[in-house]
Amino acid sequence: MRLLFLGDVMGRAGRTAVCETLPKLRKDWRLDFVVVNGENASSGHGLTTAHAELLLKAGADCLTLGDHAFDQRDMLQYIEKEPRILRPLNYAKTAPGSGARLFEAPGGRKVLVAQALGQVFMKRPFSDPFSALETVLRTHPLGASAAASIVDIHCEATSEKMAVGHFCDGRASLVVGTHTHVPTADAMILSGGTAYLSDAGMCGDYDSVIGMEKEEPLRRFITGMQKNRFTPARGPATLSGVYVETDDRTGKALRIDPVRVGGRLQQSGPGGAG
């Protein structure tokens, strides 16, 4: 299978990049399944119903969220109606929606998508991501009920993301980190056959401070004082993520390529640079 995962969509610039670019990528790269992290798509804070529908219409098969899952209040109701949107597995027990689901892919194949929140350096003490993922991976074994499995680990610490990658090795097609908005250069296939990347980066304007206009973050770093709200940067956005090809029999990864399309970062993808 040909899988594409796109990192945190950041504000209007990120939404525009996904809506303008993803349909062409689906066709040119013959993608079977696309996951997009949309938790910052609405002004950098959560995801509205309207923006979720835009991203799904653009070609996302599944939208994952994160620690800002319910910053937009309408998501509390909409996530119960829209099965293609996932909040973290280890969010509050009373939270609406689901943290993992099997999705239909071409040819009758099933794709498992799961998301968990990390605990290290996060503002709120979420429950253990490892035990949450263990239950899901055992229920939907790779190469059996799931032809491919994608795990979005949404957390701050690269060490925790790496630990989750090794924990899932051989049991997931892809483990990819989100949340920090900075793409890492460690794309690899682990010894058990799981493709891994510490952070997919963001779909947003990189002439910024992790997607926000530079002035206010700089003021706060330099003076320690707050003057204005953070505002998402609106310049040309780079589509950042990762492309993975899997073995049709085992579901394990055969290939992994970072994706950088448009904007300020060096462009790359399954066809190589350019």
Number of strands: 14
What's the CATH class label? Alpha Beta
Percentage beta strand: 15-25%
Number of domains: 1
CATH third-tier fold name: Purple Acid Phosphatase, chain A, domain 2
Low-confidence stretches: none
Mean pLDDT: 94
Could you spell the SSE succession in H and E letters? Answer: EEHEHEHEEEHEHEEEEHEE
C-alpha geometry: globular
Q: Which structural class do the helices and strands define?
A: alpha/beta
Strand order of the largest sheet: 5-4-3-1-13-14
Q: What is the CA–CA distance across the termini?
A: 23 Å
Query: CATH H-level name... which superfamily?
Result: Metallo-dependent phosphatases
Instruction: Return Rg in Å.
Output: 17 Å
Can you count the helices?
6
Described by strand count, sense and barrel closure, the largest sheet is: 6 strands, mixed
Task: Give the proportion of residues in helices.
Answer: 10-25%
Description:
It contains 6 helices and 14 strands. The chain has a single domain, classed as Purple Acid Phosphatase, chain A, domain 2 (4-Layer Sandwich), CATH 3.60.21. The radius of gyration is 17 Å and the shape is globular. The longest helix is centred in the N-terminal third of the chain and has 18 residues, at 11-28. The protein has 274 residues and is of the alpha/beta class. The model has no long low-confidence stretch (mean pLDDT 94). α1 (11-28) runs parallel beside α2. The strands form 3 sheets. The chain has a 6-stranded mixed beta sheet. A 6-stranded mixed beta sheet has the order 6-7-8-9-11-10, covered by helices on one side. 24% of the residues lie in helices and 24% in strands. A hairpin with a 5-residue loop joins β10 (188-189) and β11.
